[in-house]
Design brief:
Layout lengths: L1 H19 L33 E7 L5 E8 L26
Antiparallel strand pairs: 1-2
The chain binds zinc ion (ZN) (2 copies).
């Protein structure tokens, strides 16, 4: 009878464990390699890390009136987002069911 109780307890524990884990989704969600500056990783120089993208900024005249947009080089000097390569794999946790 002890064995049966153990299996029951293990089943309850496993069910609780599975419920407490985030639900498994179909396929991993792709990590978007976006920097804090909002530009993609590919916009950043691999050697210097500087962002090569341009940012659209409003342009104003001396009176403070809106005169349109202008594009300036992004001020970002280093990519700060998630590493895009090669891919993230959630390591399969070796399940030790306590056999
Ligand atoms: Zn950046
Ligand atoms: Zn940028």
């Amino acid at each position: 009878m002890i064995t049966g109780a153990l299996i029951l307890a293990a089943g309850i524990a496993l069910g609780w464990l599975l419920r407490s884990l985030p639900a498994r989704r179909k396929g991993p969600k792709p990590v978007e390699a976006k920097c804090g500056c909002g530009h993609h990783h590919s916009m950043h120089d691999p050697e210097t890390g500087a962002c090569n993208a341009t940012v659209q900024v409003g342009r104003y005249n001396q009176l403070g009136d809106w005169t349109g947009y202008e594009h300036k080089p992004c001020a970002c000097r280093r990519y700060s987002g998630p590493e895009p390569l090669p891919q993230f794999f959630a390591p399969e946790i070796a399940r030790e069911a306590g056999e």
